[in-house]
Amino acid sequence: MSLRTPVYKDTMTGIDLSxxxxxxxxxxxxxxxxxxxxxxxxxxxxxxxxxxxxxxVVPEFKFLTVGGLICGAGLETSSHKYGFFHNTxxxxxxxxxxxxxxxxxxxxxxxxxxAIPGSYGTLGFLTAATINIMxxxxxxxxxxxxxxxxxxxxKRITDESLKTPxxxxxxxxxxxxxxxxxxxxxxxxxxxxxKVNSVAAWYKKSFYKHVxxxxxxxxxxxxxxxxxxxxxxxxxxxxxxxxxxxxxxYSAFVPYIDVPLFRYIFGWTTxxxxxxxxxxxxxxxxxxEINLVLQDFIVPIDKMKMALQFFHDQVExxxxxxxxxxxxxEPGCLKFEVDEDKMYMDIGLYGYTGKPDQYEDEKSNKAxxxxxxxxx
Length: 376
Description:
This protein is α+β, with helices and mostly antiparallel strands. About 25% of the residues lie in helices and about 25% in strands. About 35% of the residues are buried.
């Protein structure tokens, strides 16, 4: 993941797919939906939610598209149960370079079906995808578990990720190498009085700031692990909790985004997509990007502690996002070298390096990538 726009695209012939942005069908009998590739997550959750449905994996940004999440590597805090976004898809419709329209699934053109995820559009144009749907609940009951050491953080999120049956959602945010909050969520139809928090509302503090308050509150740090603080969050608010501040990356460009008065008065004007950033001339964007790290790395869950220490030593970026994801044992570009399903950890580094004197875009990123390749 990167904010940078590849220069090579300027020489390519653009093909307008902007009209492919809607739901084609919702089949309540088979519990699937067929959707076009430019359907955004914000649109999808609004439409499906009005009908009482959702999809198993809903990546957090409203502007992320179905096609991008399939051809890239979409995941979310339910991925420890369902795998990547593409693992919830049952078939694709693809236009090949020859102009032929091909439908593929596990039983039909299976080689193409497994090759599309992670192919980044190199095999053809994805024009439709059929995705599993499920009944939606009104709320997510989210528990906030502060952790005060790297060992505690890695053990807690590993235990929650590997539980059977496990929670519906698991994620973590580390605010330093040894301070963080692990969050565990459960779908629920009921809310407790005084515990409903619409965390995605424009006048609320950014979600990561909300979570941080559970770490620094003395009364919460001392709570036993068996009695974590809990809040009930409306389902769609939970899905898009990180949209407002782009996790916390947008604070690099709008430093007053988390000033309470600004948020209360002007928060509704803040962009929740990446297109606003893309229209800024590249020469100005480069000013922000020189020491900015915006990368996700996936490592086996048992290598997470070592990875967090390595990333700290190399770039020292905080906060850090932790999201467990189950690697489903299927062929394709995103197949891991295992013979069975295995749990991995997505580690998201979004922010300015704490070591600007030794950080170099290309050199530092290659070092991080090399670590991941050596520890698959």
